[in-house]
Amino acid sequence: MAKFKKPSVYFVAGSLLIFLVIQGLISTGTLNDYWKGIIFWGGAITIVTLGLNLIYGFNGQFSLGQYGFYGIGAYGSAYVTYHWVRGDPAAMVVALFGSLLVIGLYAALAWGLRRFYGVTVKARFTFYLIITILGFWASVVVLVPLLGPMMWGFFAALPEAVAQPLVFFLALISGGMLAGITSFLFGLPVLELGSDYFGIATLGFTIIVKVLLDNTDTILPFPAMKGARGMLGIPRWTTWAWVFGTLFVVIVIMRNLLHSSVGRAIVSVREDERAAELVGIDVANAKILAFVLGSVFAGVAGGLRAHDITFLHPQSFHFIQSFNPLIIVVFGGLGSITGTVFTGFLWIVLLEGVLRLFLPSGYETWRFVIYPLILLMMMLLRPEGLFGTYELPFLRAAHVAKRQAIAQKPEEVPV
Amino acid sequence: MTNALVTRKRGKRPARFDGLILNRISLTIFGACGLMLLYVLANGFYRNPGVFIQQVLNGLQLGFIYALIALGYTMIYGIVKLINFAHGDVFMVGAFSSFYAISMLDLHRWPEWVWADAPPALVTLPGTVTVILLSMLISGALAVVIERFAYRPLRNKPRIAALITAIGVSFFMEYFGALPFVYTNNYQTYDRPFEVTVFSAGQIPIWVIVSFWVLLGVSVGIFLWLSWRWKCGDVAALAWRRHPLLQFGLLFGGFMAVVLTLTGVPLRIGDRFWELSVSSVMLVIMGSSIVLQVLLQYIVAHTRLGMAMRAAAYDKQAARLMGINVDMVISATFAIGGGLAGAAGVLFATAFRQVYYLMGITPGLKAFVAAVVGGIGSIPGAFVGSLIMGQTEVLAAGFISTPMRDAIAFSLLIIVLLLWPQGIYGEPPADKV
Amino acid sequence: MRARWFITIMIVVSMLALTACGGGDGGDTIKIAVLAPLSGEVATFGESTRDGIILATEEWNARGGINGKTIELVVEDSQCNAEMALSAANKVIDQDGVNFIIGEVCSSASIPVSEIAMAKGVLQISPTSTNPSVTVDEDGNTKSLIFRACFIDPFQGSVAARFALDNLGAQTAAVFLNQGNDYVRGLAEFFREAFEAGGGEVVVWETYTTEDQDFSAILTNARDANPDVLYLPDYYSTVNLIAAQAIERGMDAMMMGGDGWDSPDLDRSVVEGGFYTNHYSPQDPRPIVQEFVQKYQQKYGAEPDALAALAYDAANILFQSIEQADSTDPQIVASTMSQGRFSVVSGDITFDAQHNPVKSAVLLQVSGGEIVFVDTVAP
Description:
By secondary structure, chain B is mostly helical. Chain B has helices spanning 20-47, 49-80, 87-103, 111-114, 120-151, 159-177, 206-230, 235-241, 243-269, 280-302, 304-314, 316-321, 326-352, 361-374, 379-400, 405-419; strands spanning 17-18, 188-189, 198-200, 277-279, 354-355. Chain B is built from 16 helices and 5 strands.
């Protein structure tokens, strides 16, 4: 029996308390759908931002691509459940087992490529791309007729109360995996760029995703996504338990990752790439790992959001929106999980709650005049973010505090 | 416990095969994709050269507009290393100030105030220049104010704080401008300061076309020669060193010039002749873009201010120790960048006849991407990047796929960054070890 | 030190926000929510919509309200964005306790609002959302509480196509559409269907995005195909841009469009001679039309555009239904509305089984800088 440390106990107990209080408020109807919507939205955006914090705050790779992966996850998992509730398991099989197959193929290919020396990143990228296409093609051709009926039969045998959450869970996982695969393919060559250039390339990625989402029914073969008409008919499955559970799991994964030696490697890349390389850290892998994991978080959050609003439109993933996670992460303090979680909710409460409720009628358009003013005041008064370097004791790691002192030096932080 | 990210133990079996073959395979695949793209374009040209050349002309116009905006981006980035997202909105303010100057003050016809029946040429030219100068002044002042109050307090703070501030300033200017008592949130039709005439190839004698292309070629040549001669920040010299690309560019330009003049002859005979048209706005845009580039190059390379700028861009601390007023220099950079954006705003509004409060976002973003493609921080880079961006967009829309136009443009950005990680003309970062 | 101060303030603010929940329901007023994009790219359409509704409300209130109850408007900005619209709809329903929603302008925002409205038993009438999915759910059932005041796309598109074929004698057409806007896309698709069914040929089918300002590439392609008709089913803002560039590039095709053209800000010099379909003609001698145009001009100092007219109609339809039903129960009002007959600016309206208005379309021509009535086409 492992001994639990005090901070861990406090953290879990506190989380449970927050969960129960909000669940109670929702069940009794004190929090109406308006506030519920805001909290769910806050939860989703917080998970997206935690992903960005891992990529930018802890690994130092300035990324504007989170909304692209968020969109992929949202559309991916929504497509799966859309077809599932209409009696077609094919999308689920492709998204879930196809992704697993592709990941397996990646592992095999990585093992194979290790036997060669001097392979450029671009060449690696080519082979990974080919194998991704092959993998998904194979899953459509082979896995769907093979596993589709089997899976359908299995879920039909389960009671509805078990089957539905399980399907939702698998859909979220599929969305996350699709986002992860895309981010791996994209990150493989692009992460080699310097920080500013990486940020700009990810901005381009977000725009490309938006264009593709606009054309899902004409250029891409996904008629149910309906392109710019907006995707309808997604089941409303997201509950507070799902939002909270996902958020909790994401925080714990991030915390444990950062406390491990892998986490130290990730952080060391941010501190000084060259020094990290010199002590034997595989910089490229550390970057890829953080980037893919952060994107998986964004994809899962997209799935949660899609099953909350039940309607998806490409306009929601416009590149202007992709600044939101960046704003939140800087607001909360780069490299502070506590700060991100707090400001994620605060941001949405401010924008959708406070500004909607307190602006007198006739001044509705002032919402987006006041919001940037708050942004400006915030940055001028507290450029290091609300929480700066602060972490809850449970999330605090010994190396975090030291590192922050260096990170605050202006010239060292990449934009 | 072992760390998966530490390369100490990298599998038991050592890598023993040469990866060259794999690299070559991947190169072949990419090459095939590139060739397919070229084939699509060549096919388009072959089917209808008139349309193709017209598309190239359209692309040039777009590219020159981007170039004006991109210059401001690149200068500001070069000196403060800040992606100034508010730049597109300074551009918008420039367009709006000229809009009000024209529609409310009738400023574009001020010579008529002093001389009631002046000949049109004497009215339009000084009038237009005044309008442009006024817009440049307002936008330049605005950029300086933004720098003073939003960016300067954060200069010694993490750069990301200034970036967020830039986003905030951008939002503020858009949504504050949308309020009914500031501008308006409506789309407004812009009264042009000068009448736009469209020259179709039928009206132009062949010697004009020839001399236009010769002049263009000569001016680009002079521009490149001057930038090499003046060695602004050694960037142009670097550009020459990357001669394969430059050679390609010159060859392509020359090829296009020859094709244009040659195809001009059969086109004159065929009924497809009207295909080619150039509007006067486009000529003005191209002309002012080139003039401003050269002027800027001169300022950066040959004046004391330019020298101070280069020094501040290289090392602010050392520049300060050398007695350079760095704050002053940065303000001047913002003033110049803002002024250029203002001029671009007027020309943009004149070309497209519409102003509205979000008009700065898309051209701003595309120009920024163009500056990155060219190598951000480099003035010739911004110019070349913008031309590439304009061509990509128009040729993609014309011959590959219209819905995918933006996707193709941004894919190009990513591909260029993969080939030249600092952009085409960018300098590799100084090694700080 | 400062950190703690900041955090305290922020917490206090959020607490304040949380405790501000709950809205009262006045006895003598009927609260009606208006959801419109008041900021963002289409803010100007949202403002027209809001102005039209405010005009109708003021008229009714001046007449003593609906059955003696004053109308109180709750206006929310939803930016034409699904997420914002959702949060705004939840806010007006849960915080302000409204039973009736007029809005949204864009289908992409109206659809999520309609799902909320159905779930909460709130009546929604959208003035301008043309996507069939607003009133019909994914399985083809009509949403009982959701209505719209505008045509759906098939009708307008086919009217334009038939007119082009029969009256203009067109054989070929070029269609430009905004790929990100389903209103435009719907019109364009149904135009193509009807045009090709009638023996014409759509020779150019080009898309652009909302942000585009330069249309030279697609115009060059279109000019090369030399079509008889250039169909531009977008809002006037984009039409102004495209038409001006088309003329500069020497296109002589006849331009046609939809109700998006109807605005005082349409640049009439560049679409001179063009035809468009609309809900009503400002020259229509019916008193309600003349009265509306005159009142709107008086209040806002500008001619009403199509969005203002439709919003005015939507508000009037809703108010009349509430008055006839003599109830504020959305279910009862909805059944009254679906059976009622309304004489409004855009004609005499009844609702069909899918809650789309049945009304005739009007063809207008831009001629000599004026809008001239050409023809009325019954459904």
